[in-house]
Amino acid sequence: MTWNISTIVAEVFYCIIGLIFIATGMKALKDESCAHRTTTALFWFILAFTFIAGPYLPKWITGLCVVFLAILTAFKRVAPSKSDMPKEAETRAAADRLGYSVFIPPLVLAVSAVLVATFLKVLGANNAIGISGSIALVTAFIFFRPKAVYAVKDCTRLTDNVGVTGILPQVLAALGSVFTAAGVGDVIAGGVSAIIPAGNLFAATAVYCIAMALFTMIMGNGFAAFSVITVGIGIPFLIAQGADPVVVGALGLTAGYCGTLMTPMAANFNILPAALLETKNKYIVILSQLPVALVMLAVHIVLMYTLAFR
User: Fold this and answer.
1) Read out DSSP for 295-309?
2) Nearest Cα to 62, choosing from 78, 75, 46?
3) d(Cα 290, Cα 135) in Å, to the nearest integer?
4) Nearest by Cα to 232 from 194, 309, 180, 172
5) pLDDT digit string, tens, across residues 44-98
6) pLDDT tens for each residue of 3-19
7) Of 48, 91, 165, 170, which sits with the fewest C-beta atoms within 10 Å of its C-beta?
8) Region for residue 221 given its phi and psi (left: phi exceeds 0; alpha: psi -120 to 50; beta: otherwise)
9) pTM greater than 0.90
10) What is the distance between the alpha carbons of residues 165 and 286, in angstroms, rounded to a whole number?
11) Using CB atoms within 10 A of its CB, is residue 241 exposed (0-12), middle (13-18) or buried (19+)?
């Protein structure tokens, strides 16, 4: 790894995340009511190890850690542990006291993220998220003055609620790079050539947009799907036939985002909100977004066909 200010700051945040995972593992280990407290703690400790020691590990060791995490998940050996939740009366009293001021930290987070990403580009866009989160946390302490331990408790509670799906975006993004390097796009191109009638540009457009949405649903990441599907379908069947690459690229990626709205694999978008809201059905966000996503996908097909071949 080449060390510069961006990677150093990123490493600090990775270590903080690793410490949160360690705290989550300790929480499970101390909870005698947790169904699989030993293996649950082991899951979070291994994950923390990869986050903290990742840059110094041989790649094969990190790979073994990921495989072991997958085995623990596949055999359902990771379970949520008991969280210290406030009583309903306490929550109601706090809500009445704070009112709309609870929205100040989220607004500070959003504004500071844009400012850091725009004016401190040397830090990198990903670090803007960590920095803005830190600023929002400080803002929350200034306005609401909670006990310091609440920050740790709520971090572990939220991590526990999201569970193993929280690491899906990272794993699936890496899988997209593997697929591209393995030539999956070429295989897809061979299969699609047998489906799309020669010279039928509308069919090619529809297949490209639908494939972007479907592959995003599988990968949970529109960027990972974009490289594979654009190489396999977008370039040979659209751009090579005269489509505007700017239109194809822009609408292709957002067509993939339609798939993001319909998949639990996009855990940070669809499972995390359900965990935050503590809904009875963890898929309620997806079910609510499904009709809109399908309509948007149809609109993308029409727009791409209309604009890309003008």
Assistant:
1) HHHHHHHHHHHHHHT
2) 46
3) 34
4) 180
5) 999 999 999 988 889 899 989 999 999 999 898 998 888 777 788 878 888 888 8
6) 788 889 999 999 999 99
7) 91
8) beta
9) no
10) 15
11) middle
